[in-house]
Design brief:
40% of the residues lie in helices and 20% in strands. By secondary structure, it is of the alpha/beta class. The chain has eight helices and seven strands, in the order ααβαβαββαβαβααβ. The longest helix is centred in the N-terminal third of the chain and has 19 residues.
C-alpha cells in the first residue's frame, strides 16, 4: 500500500532524478554533476550526437540528459542493459543498446563521448580508448571519469561497496585495473591527438566522506538516505569544483579531438 509519505517522496525525488541528477545514488550524482559541469554549454548549442559509453544497466544519465536536451540525440551502450529500461525508454532522442564497447565500430559518429567508471573494468584499456576516440568527430569532446590509482577511504577499504551487493554478479563487474593516474590519462589522450582541456582529481576528502556515508546508510536500509545527503553533496561538489583537491579517489579528464588537417 502506497502511503502519503511515499507519494510525497516520489513527488519530490522523481523530478530531481528525471530532470537534474539521473538518480539519488550519491556516486551517480557526484559523477553526473562533474559531467554536466563540463558539457552542459556544449549540449545547450543543440544538435549534438552523444554516446554514453558504458551507460550502466539503467542508463540513468543518458535518459536524464536526453530529457534536458531534446534537440540532441543520445545513445547508451553497455554490456548489460535491463530489458525493462530498454522497453521503458520512450523519448525519440535516446536509445539504449546492449553491446560490448571493446567491439565498438562507430567511426566519426559522435560530437560527445563520455565514459564514467567503465575503463577500469576493461582489460584492453588502450584498444577501447582507441575505439572511443575513433567514434568522435573532429572537434568532438571526450569526457572520462575513472577511479584514481591512489584510493583512500574513511571507512574500511571500500570493498564492501562492490557493485554486486544488491544484485546478481555479472560479467564485467570486476575491476581489472586498480585505477589510473592523471598523467596516465593525459598521455593516453595526447597520443591519440586529443587536446586535454581539463584534468583533475575528483572525490576529494569531503566528497568521498559523503559517498561512503551514503553507501553505509544504504547497506543499513536507511530510507531516503540519498535525499537526506543531497544538499551536502551538492555543496561539497560545488566547492570541489571551485577549489581543486590535491588528491582524490577519482580522476576526471576532458579533451577535444583535434581537427583533421587537409593534405
Amino acid at each position: 500500500m502506497i502511503t502519503v509519505l511515499d507519494k510525497l517522496y516520489r513527488g519530490v525525488t522523481s523530478p530531481l532524478s528525471e530532470r537534474w541528477l539521473g538518480g539519488l545514488h550519491a556516486g551517480l550524482v557526484i559523477k553526473g554533476l562533474y559531467l554536466q559541469w563540463k558539457v552542459a554549454a556544449f549540449l545547450r548549442q543543440g544538435g549534438r550526437s552523444v554516446l554514453d559509453a558504458g551507460c550502466g544497466p539503467e542508463a540513468q544519465l543518458a535518459v536524464m540528459l536526453a530529457g534536458r536536451y531534446p534537440t540532441c540525440s543520445f545513445v547508451g551502450r553497455d554490456l548489460h542493459v535491463d530489458r525493462e529500461v530498454r522497453d521503458a525508454v520512450r523519448r525519440t532522442n535516446v536509445s539504449v543498446i546492449e553491446s560490448d564497447l571493446t567491439r565498438l565500430e562507430s567511426i566519426g559518429e559522435y560530437d560527445l563521448v563520455y565514459s564514467i567508471d567503465v575503463l577500469e573494468h576493461i582489460e584492453d584499456f588502450e584498444g577501447t580508448l582507441d575505439r572511443l576516440v575513433g567514434a568522435l568527430r573532429s572537434g568532438g569532446l571526450l569526457f572520462i571519469h575513472v577511479p584514481s590509482l591512489d584510493q583512500r577511504f574513511w571507512f574500511g577499504s571500500g570493498e564492501d561497496e562492490a557493485s554486486d551487493r544488491f544484485r546478481a554478479h555479472r560479467s564485467g563487474d570486476d575491476h581489472v585495473h586498480e585505477g589510473f593516474t592523471l598523467s596516465q590519462l593525459t598521455e593516453a589522450l595526447e597520443r591519440r591527438s586529443v587536446t586535454v582541456l581539463d584534468v583533475r582529481p575528483t572525490f576529494g576528502r569531503w566528497v568521498s566522506l559523503l559517498k561512503e556515508t551514503f553507501s553505509y546508510g544504504e547497506r543499513q536500509g536507511v530510507r531516503g538516505i540519498g535525499l537526506l545527503l543531497l544538499p551536502a553533496v551538492l555543496l561539497t561538489v560545488a566547492l570541489e569544483i571551485l577549489f581543486v583537491p590535491k588528491r582524490g579517489n577519482g580522476s576526471m579528464i576532458l579533451g577535444v579531438k583535434q581537427e583533421r588537417v587537409p593534405t
